[in-house]
Write a structure and sequence with these properties.
- This is ABC transporter substrate-binding protein.
- With 206 residues, the chain is α+β, with helices and mostly antiparallel strands.
- The chain has 2 domains: 107 residues, D-Maltodextrin-Binding Protein, domain 2 (3-Layer(aba) Sandwich); 86 residues, Periplasmic binding protein-like II (D-Maltodextrin-Binding Protein, domain 2).
- 41% of the residues lie in helices and 20% in strands.
- The protein has 8 helices and 8 strands; from the N terminus they run ααβαβββαβαβαββαα.
- Strands 1, 2, 3, 4, 5, 6, 7 and 8 form an 8-stranded mixed beta sheet that branches.
- Helix 4 links the parallel strand 4 and strand 5.
- Helix 1 packs antiparallel against helix 8 and helix 6 runs parallel beside helix 8.
- The radius of gyration is 18 Å and the shape is globular.
Length: 206
């Protein structure tokens, strides 16, 4: 989603950006060290964990942390505390699922959503955590027909763009552009179109 949306935001400022996908922890190191110029989609607590990074104040997207279970498991997750007795699996280095699972006794990190759902399908985990869009794409793309999403999210988090301090001068400019786009239907239209393209593109790899 960030790969689709962020360049369009910058286009209004006549700035070209290139986005390099990296695993969460590598992306964090690259941005904080200044090897990269920033991060495109992080939650609020990322800024607390990395105080040198500059948060663009206006969020541009949201994610909902969703629990996925085997459809025949009988498991019902309504809120984070319901995860306590279960074997929970999540993708390594993702802040929102790190926060949800903090202090839980049975948590396993893996490298991809596909691996996570395979563990769930093979009865090696009880609950998988990811955002709704990611989970639905995986279910459709790899035919995880025996995996179901719970009806309630465990948290809705605003997503922010972060900059390395060397780009401090851009912070108010980007924030003003985001506010301008949000005041119009423009940003909402960009996001809706991006979600459609992301789903269609991912399903092409089926």
């Amino acid at each position: 989603m960030a790969h689709e949306v962020i360049p369009q935001i910058y286009r209004g400022l006549d700035i070209k950006v290139d986005i390099l996908p990296l695993p969460g922890n590598r992306a964090q190191y690259a941005a904080v060290s200044g090897k990269m110029d920033g991060e495109v989609m992080r939650i609020w607590s990322y800024g607390e964990d990395n105080p040198s990074m500059l948060r663009v104040p206006t969020p541009y997207y949201y994610l909902e942390t969703m629990p996925f279970v085997r459809a025949d498991s009988g498991i019902l997750i309504r809120e984070p505390k319901d995860l306590q007795p279960y074997r929970v699996v999540k993708v390594r280095g993702v802040k929102h699922t790190n926060n949800i699972t903090e202090g839980l006794p049975y948590v396993r990190d893996v490298d991809s959503t596909k691996m996570m759902f395979e563990l769930l399908q093979n009865h090696q985990a009880d609950v998988a955590l990811t955002n709704n869009l990611d989970g639905q794409i995986m279910i459709q793309r790899y035919h995880f027909d025996d995996i179901a999403v719970m009806p309630n999210h465990l948290g809705r988090l605003a997503l922010y763009h972060y900059l390395h301090p060397k780009h401090a001068s851009l912070l108010p400019v980007i924030d003003a552009e985001l506010k301008r786009l949000k005041a119009l239907p423009t940003l909402n239209n960009i996001i809706k179109a991006a979600e459609i393209r992301v789903i269609e593109r991912q399903l092409l790899f089926e």
